[in-house]
Specification:
With about 240 residues, the protein is α/β, with parallel strands linked by helices. It has a single domain, classed as 3-Layer(aba) Sandwich (Rossmann fold). It contains eight helices and seven strands; from the N terminus they run H-H-H-E-H-E-H-E-H-E-H-E-H-E-E. Helix 5 links the parallel strand 2 and strand 3. Helix 2 packs antiparallel against helix 5, helix 3 runs parallel beside helix 4 and helix 6 packs parallel to helix 7. The chain is globular.
Length: about 240
């Protein structure tokens, strides 16, 4: 009986979180036909509905504007929804590079960037993110003003380490999905995503070049969170 009650409570909580998220989005974020079309195109192409919410996209955009970002790196494109939010924060001469592994996702994203009028601002690099990150280092790309990590969670430690190499003092690094419905507490979890997040947290705890924290989030996609970090030194 207790487990049923707990399940009911969890369901009620999720419904409440989703309702509040919807209210916040309706109250504070203007309707945007382009972004709505982006979501529709992504769904029609069969992409998983795991993009950030509108309120989270706006949060990322505000961080980029507060930072005064001129260069942004995104690790994990999907259909380009979060990419568009971030790119809209850039000045006229700004640039955003986004890394995507799946060719179909990249194709959908490029079409979405055309739809949003941002194809000249956003560069999609196709391939394994770790390979693309190494290539960016070889090219001496960056430093980037803001880096958003939203790819496979098992590899977050590697992405974060690479991100530091492409940063400078003042760079903001944001990492998505680091609470995992509370499963991040499970030290002995066999889930590689959980272990990836936990290793990332251990790296951050020891890393003197960054200062940051994690904010828990709740909404239509459940209980999760963002890590937000500021690079305070390069060495």
């Amino acid at each position: 009986m207790m487990s049923l009650r707990m399940a009911d409570a969890a369901q009620n909580s999720t419904e409440l979180w989703a309702a509040v998220e919807s209210y916040i989005s309706d109250a504070m974020i203007a309707a945007d036909p382009v972004l709505e079309a982006v979501l529709q195109a992504s769904a029609a192409a069969g992409l998983p509905p795991i993009n950030v919410g509108a309120n989270q996209g706006k949060f990322l955009q505000l961080l980029a504007r507060i930072r005064g970002a001129r260069t942004i790196l995104e690790i994990g494109t999907l259909g380009g929804y979060s990419t568009i939010w971030l790119a809209r924060a850039l000045p006229a001469d700004g640039q955003l590079i986004t890394l995507e592994f799946a060719p179909m996702h990249a194709e959908v994203a490029r079409a979405n960037f055309q739809r949003a009028g941002l194809a000249d601002v956003i560069e999609v690099r196709l391939g394994r993110a770790q390979d693309s990150l190494r290539q960016l280092e070889k090219e001496k790309a960056g430093p980037f003003d803001l880096i958003f990590i939203d790819a496979d969670k098992a590899s977050i430690p590697n992405y974060f380490t690479a991100a530091l190499n492409l940063s400078t003092a003042g760079t903001v690094i944001v990492v998505d999905n680091v609470v995992r419905k509370g499963a991040v507490l499970e030290a002995k979890s066999s889930d590689p995503d959980i272990q990836g997040v936990r290793r990332f947290n251990e790296i951050v705890r020891r890393e003197s070049r960054v200062s940051g924290t994690t904010l828990q989030t709740v909404g239509s996609k459940g209980h999760d969170g963002f890590a937000v970090l500021l690079v305070v030194a390069t060495k």
